[in-house]
């Protein structure tokens, strides 16, 4: 192995020192008390590569260091020891993963004579929010597929799993209050039981991934309103939007949100959807028109915004933070806004001081085809790997936006993506996204990325499990 510039995401700092360490001489992994599993993980993946890190040998020490920032790590390689230091357990986990990358490249032709150059790698993320959204409402996935996705995310140091569980085609979180919702099966049948959700959330936590579950309103609710037409403006023709004026709609949604949130006790953030509601039904509804006038509002978008702000307040009353897609209206400022149609949504939101997530579709929607050979809807643009890699919308105005931009999130909608095609859609673009989310612009370089990705792929690094 020639040098240490082989890692994905590419580190902030690499310093070369003279000398090498022979990987066959490595052994004696030690880890901080309580975090032995991170050491165990390294031993397991090294074992897959033919290395025995439980033997007597050059020590590999995993330590926690107060001098290093959260999620950050340093790896120091010298002929007589390897030290992997993390600023917190997540940083240690990422550092151990980075060291696995060095191992897998050094042993690419076998362990005999394999060596790693001495030196020091130091790294920390650019963004604290590095998200991936999976739509489980259109096509549902198996628990195993979702765990594999989480494992891949962890290897790429992505730390937020936004789980789109409800849409017109399905309500995929178990509901004991409204079990009829779990019968929706427009594209695929099925839902996640409370036990399965717990299993997925526990697995995510071990991968240092936060889960943000999403429940949709007031649009994208066709299936649900077919089962509960009384909650639509016109029960004869329920459509896909809830009535904004009927008190029973708010009562129903509050009960549903409370039940939904309780399935995710570790989640401090709930996504309320809010995208793509059409005003057509509200226009024809006397109750919606009356409420708009009574509240002194001048149009139905303002009424929609008022409704979403009320729902967001309800989420806050549960001690949680709401997120919504950018709807075109301004949400109360503690609601996090996810921009998806254009950069201008961030610019509009910035003026109101809300925190933001960047998911602009033509740069980060992975349902869009990666190559022209893929089947796709006529309206979808192509989004190739370099398109995702080169997404760098914020550099020009990073100063103005400051901490309000939490980070980017890439999204996989699944209208055209059944379970078995999930990884065909994610790879390689999720790898490219990891550098968009983790690296500062100065660290990024497309040709370097292609080289590093090809070598890591040849070393089968992406095939190994994070847990
Ligand atoms: C969206 O793509 N409808 C958020
Ligand atoms: Zn109405």
CATH superfamily of the largest domain: Glycosidases
What is the highest CATH level, the class of the largest domain? Answer: Alpha Beta
What fraction of the residues are assigned to beta strands by DSSP?
15-25%
Ligands, deduplicated:
acetamide, zinc ion
The biggest beta sheet is recorded as:
8 strands, parallel, barrel
Residue share in helix: 25-40%
Number of alpha- plus pi-helical segments: 16
Counted up, domains total: 2
Overall morphology: elongated
What does the average pLDDT come to? 95
CATH topology of the largest domain: TIM Barrel
Structural class: alpha/beta
Strand order of the largest sheet: 7-8-11-12-13-14-15-16
Distance between the termini: 26 Å
Q: What's the count of strands?
A: 16
- Provide the gyration radius in Å: 24 Å
Unreliable residue runs: none
């Amino acid at each position: 192995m020639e040098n240490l510039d082989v890692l994905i995401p590419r580190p902030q700092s690499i310093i070369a020192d003279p000398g090498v360490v022979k990987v066959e001489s490595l052994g004696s992994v030690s880890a901080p008390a309580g975090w032995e599993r991170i050491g165990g993980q390294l031993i397991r993946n090294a074992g897959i590569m033919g290395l025995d890190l439980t033997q007597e040998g050059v020590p590999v020490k995993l330590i926690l260091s107060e001098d290093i920032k959260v999620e950050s790590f340093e790896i120091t390689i010298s002929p007589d020891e390897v030290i992997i230091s993390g600023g917190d357990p997540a940083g240690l986990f990422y550092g151990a993963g980075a060291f696995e990358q060095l191992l897998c490249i050094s042993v690419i032709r076998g362990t005999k004579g394999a060596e790693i150059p001495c030196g020091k790698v130091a790294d920390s993320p650019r963004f604290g929010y590095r998200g991936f959204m999976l739509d489980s409402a259109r096509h549902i996935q198996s628990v195993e597929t979702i765990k594999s996705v989480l494992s891949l995310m962890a290897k790429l140091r992505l730390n937020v799993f936004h789980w789109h569980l409800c849409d017109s085609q399905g309500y995929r979180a178990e509901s004991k209050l409204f079990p009829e919702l779990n019968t929706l099966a427009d594209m695929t049948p099925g839902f996640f039981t409370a036990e399965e959700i717990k299993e997925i959330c526990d697995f995510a936590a071990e991968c240092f991934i936060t889960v943000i579950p999403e429940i949709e309103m007031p649009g994208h609710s066709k299936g649900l309103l077919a089962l509960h037409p009384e909650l639509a403006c016109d029960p004869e023709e329920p459509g896909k939007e809830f009535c904004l004026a009927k008190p029973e709609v708010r009562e129903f949604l509050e009960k549903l949100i409370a039940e939904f949130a309780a399935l995710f006790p570790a989640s401090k953030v709930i996504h309320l959807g809010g995208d793509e509601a059409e005003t057509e039904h509200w226009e024809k509804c006397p109750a919606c028109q009356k409420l708009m006038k009574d509240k002194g509002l001048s149009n139905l978008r303002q009424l929609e915004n008022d409704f979403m702000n009320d729902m967001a307040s309800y989420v806050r009353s549960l001690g949680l933070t709401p997120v919504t897609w950018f709807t075109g209206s301004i949400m109360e400022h503690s609601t996090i806004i996810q921009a998806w149609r254009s950069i201008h949504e961030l610019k509009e939101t910035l003026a109101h001081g809300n925190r933001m997530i960047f998911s602009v579709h033509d740069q980060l929607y992975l349902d869009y085809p990666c190559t022209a050979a893929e089947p796709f809807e006529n309206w979808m643009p192509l989004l190739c790997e370099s398109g995702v890699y080169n997404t760098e919308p914020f550099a020009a105005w990073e100063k103005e936006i400051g901490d309000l931009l939490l980070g980017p999130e890439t999204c996989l909608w699944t209208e055209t993506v059944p379970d078995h095609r999930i990884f065909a859609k994610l790879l390689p673009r999720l790898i490219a996204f990891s550098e968009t989310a983790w690296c500062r612009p100065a660290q990024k370089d497309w040709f370097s990325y292609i080289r590093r990705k090809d070598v890591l792929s040849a070393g089968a690094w992406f095939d190994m499990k994070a847990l």
